[in-house]
Amino acid sequence: MRPDIGNEEYDAVKKVLESAHLTEGPVTQEFEKAVASYVGAKHGIAVTSCTTALHTVLEIVGVKGKEVIIPDYTYPATAEAVELAGGIPVLVDVDINSMNMTSEILEKAYNDKMNIFIPVSWGGVPLEPEVYKTAKKLGLITLEDAACSLGSMIGSDRVGKIADFTCFSFHPRKVVTTGEGGMITTDNDEMAERCHSFKHFGMKEGRFAGSGTNYKLSNILSAIGVQQMKKIEKIISDRTERARIYDELLAKVAGVRAPYFKKGTRQTYQSYTCYVEREGMRDKIRQKLAENNIESQIGTYALHLEPAYAKTKRVGSLQNSENLFKNALTLPLHNQLTVEDQERIYSVIMSCMAS
Ligand SMILES: Cc1ncc(COP(=O)(O)O)c(C=O)c1O
Questions:
Q1: Residue 231, Ramachandran bin (φ over 0: left; ψ between -120 and 50: alpha; else beta)
Q2: Which of 272, 78, 265, 101 is closest to 182 using CA atoms?
Q3: Ligand 1 binding pocket includes 178 (Cβ within 6 Å)
Q4: Contact 222, 13 (CB under 8 A)
Q5: How confident is the model over 220-270, as pLDDT tens digits?
Q6: 330 lines ligand 1 (CB under 6 A)
Q7: CA 45 to ligand 1 center in whole angstroms
């Protein structure tokens, strides 16, 4: 990943520095409005990261002592936010193709003491619409961990408009970045106000009325975000163009499956993550890529295999998550990547798979 940063971001940061208003302020509000209006939600609440965004929502909804379903295949941040809010994560499997939780998996793991769950739209792949419908049917609040999915769409709806609450990340590995940063989007007026209060030490109308902390996003970082939001569509279309080139190249390699794409949706290719079907070969490919000075990544983690989550409650088999952890491969993707670079990457993969 290489962030798309231009002169606009430098100028906007300089303007904030010259204004002397460095902490949260009018530029943060402009950023909140830009993200909310982009996804089609009523409110945007800017915070310091996706992790603190998830924590904020879980605190105001209240999960102390309650079980919260999350996918096993995710970055540990999803589980950490639950534990930070006093909840008990319950790990479930994901679909091997979309790499996301499904409605069937949700239904099997649900019990009537739960009030909220956290599906992850991983890597830029939106959730199946049935997940939201099933949650409604069960009376569960949907808190979507869309750290990787700003710009993803189901039909004409953008991720961020569909769930009760959606949390985004602006870490530099995301489609748009503020260095570090996060955003909650929701249509719920009362909860939005409570999120604002929580990230502001619990302050409401000048009084400290409830619990809170300091998760404010500064004007400085928000200034980068405002400029990034003006470019997001171009960034996604550049990524999609390169993803199509990879798709065509990988179609020629037996045993490597290109990332999931469902007609009628838009995935942003925040991570171009393919699946290597031959056991042990993913790591050999990564090693060969590294020898050729090409950086690659795994997909993400199977939490139950990490020491911190070895004893965490789970429902059902976590086999797909485990297979993805062992076999998923994320390839380089950024706006300076040339067709020649992509062909070179393909050749390394091809030669490993042919060996
Ligand atoms: C699914 C998921 N959730 C949460 C996070 C954490 O985001 P942040 O670094 O903004 O806290 C990540 C980070 O990559 C992620 O992949």
A1: alpha
A2: 78
A3: no
A4: no
A5: 999 999 999 999 999 999 999 999 999 999 999 999 999 999 999 999 999
A6: no
A7: 17
Contact partners, residue 45, CB within 8 Å, separation at least 6: 32, 53, 56, 183, 184, 185, 186, 192, 195, 196, 199
CB 240 within 8 A of CB 198: no
Q: Which atom of ligand 1 is nearest to the CA of 51?
A: 11
Closest atom of ligand 1 to 81 CA is 4
- Name every residue whose Cβ is closer than 8 Å to that of residue 112 and which is 6 or more positions away in sequence: none
Cα–Cα distance between 346 and 263 in angstroms, integer? 25
Model pTM score: 0.98
141, 87 contact by CB (below 8 A): no
**CB 299 within 8 Å of CB 271:** yes
DSSP bridge pairs for 36: none
Asked whether the CA dihedral 300, 306, 308, 313 is positive or negative, the reply is positive
Q: Which CATH class is domain 7-228?
A: alpha beta
Domain-by-domain residue ranges, the chain?
7-228, 232-354
Q: Is 171 in the pocket of ligand 1 (CB under 6 A)?
A: yes
Q: Is 232-354 assigned to CATH 3.40.109.10?
A: no
Share of the chain above pLDDT 70, in %: 100
Q: Which residue has the tokens 């979507």?
A: 144
For the chain, first and last CA: distance in Å?
29
